């Protein structure tokens, strides 16, 4: 019996997000082997060549451009292929174009004999992760979307900046759609061991207003970046690398990803951003946070929005 001792990633889509993710994997020494696949084969090949020139400054990693047959023995297939948001477009506007692309991509990956974990970042990520789960037939644990990992990182950064505390000491979650109906779970936000709610009571009254402004900045961050530079990619690339690392290292880390709900927070048959425990098997468990009344309403609204779009696009 051959023992497989390498962690292999197949990356589909080597555009802004995909190539930044590949760069993050290389810099952080997260995988042993990376195959890069794109409709634009020249781009994938160019990226692979460019990245390999950094190997002298990183850990050993086999990097090459390939095709779908290379997915067969991959542990994780990461999908960042598809159309991205243009200025003024919402993530949900991308659904029809990207569902069609996904039908082909997921079919080709499964035809290779792939039996690992899918990690999806293409937008609208919650709907495309659901589609990947349906098209692949893999167990729900092994189909994960990047969900609100980036939005949560943005929130932690801005709250940390506001209170002048290291981002890594801010424990906070954005839940719901990775999109306009997402919301902050202030009731479960802590700075170090202190509950944010208690801090608000101790501080001046305008903290609540500042927090609302912080959330609006998080929710609209992609629009602000797209207006300025046309696309967002470094943050999501690092978020994808973080999920990849949690899988390969069997970390049991709690990350906000898009996971399938089967009754958690009163929702089912939907992929949506929630905190979940991630390990070598994928999603070990969705962490069900007891939400307050306002947050419950926000979560239901977000789930309904996704369901409506999903119903129309998957049945089309
Ligand atoms: P991009 O246009 O730079 O790259 C997309 C790549 O996909 C291109 O290289 C293209 O050739 C390739 N592609 C298209 N169709 C393909 C197919 N059928 N098979 C293989 N490759 C194909 O776009 P980008 O900026 O890298 O964004 C990619 C996706 O990531 C978009 O949907 C974007 O909205 C999304 N995104 C998600 C998040 C998140 O938080 N989840 C953040 C930023 C961007």
Structural class: alpha/beta
Instruction: Give the beta-strand count.
Output: 14
CATH class membership of the largest domain: Alpha Beta
Helices and strands, in order, run as: EHEHEEHEHEHEEEEEHHHHEEEH
- CATH homology group of the largest domain: Lactate dehydrogenase/glycoside hydrolase, family 4, C-terminal
- Identify the quaternary structure here: single chain
Distance between the termini: 46 Å
How would you explain this protein's 3D organization?
- With 316 residues, the protein is an alpha/beta fold.
- The protein has two domains: 8-145, NAD(P)-binding Rossmann-like Domain (Rossmann fold, 3-Layer(aba) Sandwich); 149-314, Lactate dehydrogenase/glycoside hydrolase, family 4, C-terminal (L-2-Hydroxyisocaproate Dehydrogenase, Chain A, domain 2), CATH 3.90.110.
- Helices cover 43% and strands 20% of the residues.
- Strands 3-2-1-4-5-6 form a six-stranded parallel beta sheet, with helices on both faces. The protein has a three-stranded antiparallel beta sheet with strand order 7-10-11. A three-stranded antiparallel beta sheet has the order 12-13-14.
- Strand 13 and strand 14 form a beta hairpin.
- The radius of gyration is 19 Å and the shape is globular.
- The model has no long low-confidence stretch (mean pLDDT 94).
- Nicotinamide-adenine-dinucleotide (NAD) binds at residues 12-18, 38-40, 43, 80-85, 94, 101, 104-105, 121-123, 125, 146, 150, 178, 231-233, 236.
């Amino acid at each position: 019996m051959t023992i497989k001792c390498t962690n292999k990633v197949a990356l589909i889509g080597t555009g802004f997000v995909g190539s930044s993710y590949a760069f993050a994997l290389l810099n952080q020494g997260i995988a042993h082997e990376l195959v890069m696949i794109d409709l634009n084969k020249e781009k994938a090949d160019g990226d692979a060549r460019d990245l390999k020139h950094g190997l002298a400054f990183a850990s050993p990693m086999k990097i090459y451009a390939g095709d779908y047959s290379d997915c067969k023995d991959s542990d994780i297939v990461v999908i960042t292929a598809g159309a991205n948001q243009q200025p003024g477009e919402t993530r949900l506007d991308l659904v029809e174009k990207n569902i069609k692309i996904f039908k082909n991509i997921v079919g080709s990956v499964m035809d290779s004999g792939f039996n690992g974990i899918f990690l999806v970042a293409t937008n609208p990520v919650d709907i495309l992760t659901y589609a990947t789960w349906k098209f692949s037939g893999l167990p729900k644990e092994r189909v994960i979307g990047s969900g609100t990992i980036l939005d949560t990182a943005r929130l932690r950064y801005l709250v940390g900046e506001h209170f002048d505390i290291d981002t890594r000491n801010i424990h906070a979650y954005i839940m719901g759609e990775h999109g306009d109906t997402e919301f902050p779970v202030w009731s479960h936000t802590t700075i170090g061991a202190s509950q944010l709610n208690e801090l608000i009571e101790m501080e001046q009254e305008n903290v609540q207003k500042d927090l609302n402004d912080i959330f609006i900045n998080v929710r609209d961050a992609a629009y602000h970046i797209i207006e300025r530079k046309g696309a967002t990619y470094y943050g999501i690339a690092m978020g994808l690398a973080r999920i990849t690392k949690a899988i390969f290292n069997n970390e049991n880390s709690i990350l906000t990803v898009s996971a399938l709900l089967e009754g958690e927070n009163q929702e089912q048959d939907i992929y949506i951003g929630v905190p979940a425990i991630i390990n070598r098997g994928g999603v070990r468990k969705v962490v069900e946070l007891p939400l307050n009344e306002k947050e419950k309403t926000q979560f239901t609204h977000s789930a309904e929005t996704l369901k409506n779009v999903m119903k129309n696009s998957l049945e089309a």
